[in-house]
Predict the structure.
Amino acid sequence: MERKEFLSKISGGLAFTCVACMMAACSKDENTGTGNNTGGGGNTGGGGTGNTLLTINLTTQLLAVNDFVSDQGIIVVRKASGNAVSSFVAFVNACPHQGVAVTFRKGSNDFYCSAHGSTFSISGAVTVSPATSGLSARTVEISGTTLTVK
Ligand code: FES
């Protein structure tokens, strides 16, 4: 084998070896990255918590215990002081008997349907028939001074 032929074969082999080494090196670099995994950023959704049915500004409404708002088919009552979720209850205001809107009675601290006289406790349970099931509760959420019913 002549020198020229020998060098040609060796350089071709080196080139192949070098390309293989570079690919291996690149491959290793790509697989060692563990510092950039911040894990799930940007997932701020509530996962299907439902639509907003009613929004109430707590600086102007529901200021005192037993204050209530009936709007958009929803009735919300403040049952305790403070702006914790547990200070409020919210229901669909349709009576489960025949769908007439119920009202809140501050004096007896219950819900009343004037159509046929059904009453419901502050927790929405039937206390006087003909209704046979309670009011349909809705979720209350509070952010700052904004109450949202969903
Ligand atoms: S619709 Fe309310 S009691 Fe009948």
Summary: The longest strand covers residues 74-78. The pocket of FE2/S2 (inorganic) cluster is lined by residues 95, 97-98, 100, 113, 115-116, 118, 130-131 (CB under 6 Å). Residues 3-31 form the longest helix (29 residues).
